[in-house]
Design goal:
- The structure is a single chain.
- The protein has 381 residues and is α+β, with helices and mostly antiparallel strands.
- The protein folds into two domains: 254 residues, Aminopeptidase (3-Layer(aba) Sandwich); 119 residues, Alpha-Beta Plaits (2-Layer Sandwich).
- The protein is built from nine helices and 17 strands.
- Strands 1-2-6-3-7-16 form a six-stranded mixed sheet, sandwiched between helices. Strands 9, 10, 11, 12 and 13 form a five-stranded antiparallel sheet that branches.
- Helix 1 crosses helix 3, helix 3 crosses helix 9 and helix 7 packs across helix 9.
- The longest helix has 21 residues.
């Protein structure tokens, strides 16, 4: 069996590669880290291919045949990371301290990726053929628009998917989805010495923000036993050009978390109705919605799904919590579910450490992940 030192070595190699998503400062296409993953599998005699997503951006798919043809289980982790602005540690040094490995992507999700890679290789070297075909996929672009997993799911046939996000090795079967969009207000510019000649878009946006705070329709009445209630956050506001000019433009960016049972388009429709009521109550309010930047569905895998039952059994064998959980964050898992592939989220690390200024992962959880993934590859039929 692979040693924990070997898994740690691979995790360190992954963290040392800058794979910040290209939309963020210091970001770049994931070609370098994907080449690392591809070379790893080929070095160990496992067939692996590139799946093109965009220029210099491709998924890596490694495959181990099963005893039976047809059924397939997909183990997937994303290789891109959040940005590094404001980090208090060196983001790409993979420093080891007190049983933790520090660095950008250490827990989200390079630890899960390293554990999946070694689980597949260990299975290959053991000479034991799994019951069904096993894929390990390193996917791109999860941190922005999910293009990697969406490409992967095109015409994909699989019986189940296991997605490596930081869940503290708990079994997540439900998660919130996410919609992000902008609301813009148009005004009229004028010299600040004569503001009455203009229309201040920032002041008009203030009316929108106050109304948003007391608008129950945008949160609805849906709740879910594992993920709770929807949330809404205004995370960005932009407006104006300089202090002595009446601003003619102001925009806000909204992050709305969607719980299972909600439909993203209905949420957007409720916002449009809300704005329509505002326009009716304020005749000079020029406000509009922009098309959503992100529209991601929630995850709600039935507890009796085969992958849930199988994963719970493996976790129980390893004396880990087998109970199905919910998580508040989104992941690639919901895209598998939309492709009618039952999916769970299960991985080392805590979401509380993801994207932080000193991101780290507990090494004992990385070792647990390797063992659990390896057993799950052998157990799922």
């Amino acid at each position: 069996m692979m040693s924990s030192a070997q898994v740690l070595d691979t995790l360190s190699g992954l963290v040392r590669i800058n794979s910040v998503n290209p939309v963020y400062p210091q970001g770049r296409p994931e070609a370098e880290i994907q080449e690392y993953v591809l070379a790893f599998f080929r070095r160990h005699g496992i067939p692996a291919v590139q799946q093109s997503v965009a220029p210099d951006r491709y998924n890596v798919i490694a495959c181990l045949p099963g005893r039976r043809t047809g059924p397939r289980i997909v183990f997937e982790a994303h290789s891109d990371t959040a940005g590094v602005e404001g980090m208090t540690i060196a983001p790409f040094e993979a420093a080891l301290r007190n049983g933790r490995l520090y660095g950008r992507g250490a827990c989200d999700t390079k630890a899960g990726l390293a554990a999946m890679m070694h689980a597949l290789v260990d299975l290959r070297h053991s000479g034991c053929r799994p019951p069904c075909e096993v894929w390990v996929v390193a996917a791109v672009d999860e941190e922005h628009s999910y293009r990697g997993v969406l490409k992967l799911c095109e015409n994909l046939e699989a019986s189940a998917a296991v997605v490596a996000e930081p869940t503290d090795m708990r079994l997540a079967v439900a998660s919130k989805g996410c919609i992000r969009w902008r609301i813009t207000v148009r005004g009229k510019s004028a010299h600040s010495s004569k503001p009455d000649l203009g229309v201040n878009a920032i002041m008009k946006m203030a009316h929108v923000l106050v109304a948003l705070e007391s608008e129950p329709a945008l949160l609805g009445s849906s709740t879910h036993p594992l993920v709770g209630s929807p949330t809404l956050n205004v995370g960005l506001i932009e407006g104006g050009t300089q202090i002595n000019v009446v601003p003619e433009f102001c925009s806000i960016a909204i992050d709305r978390r969607v719980v299972p049972g909600e439909v993203p388009d209905q949420v957007l429709g409720a916002c449009e109705q809300f704005l329509e009521r505002l326009r009716a109550s304020c005749s000079d309010l020029d406000v509009a919605m922009e098309p959503p930047m992100v529209k991601d569905w929630p995850l709600d895998t039935p507890p009796d799904a085969a992958i849930v039952q199988c994963a719970a059994k493996v976790l129980e064998q390893e004396r880990l919590d087998p109970r199905p959980q919910g998580v508040p964050f989104g992941s690639d898992a919901s895209k598998f579910a939309r492709a009618r592939i039952p999916a769970v989220v299960l991985g080392p690390g805590s979401i509380d450490q993801a994207h932080t200024v000193d991101e780290y992962v507990e090494l004992d959880q990385v070792e647990q992940a390797f063992v659990v993934y390896r057993k799950l590859m052998c157990a799922f039929e």
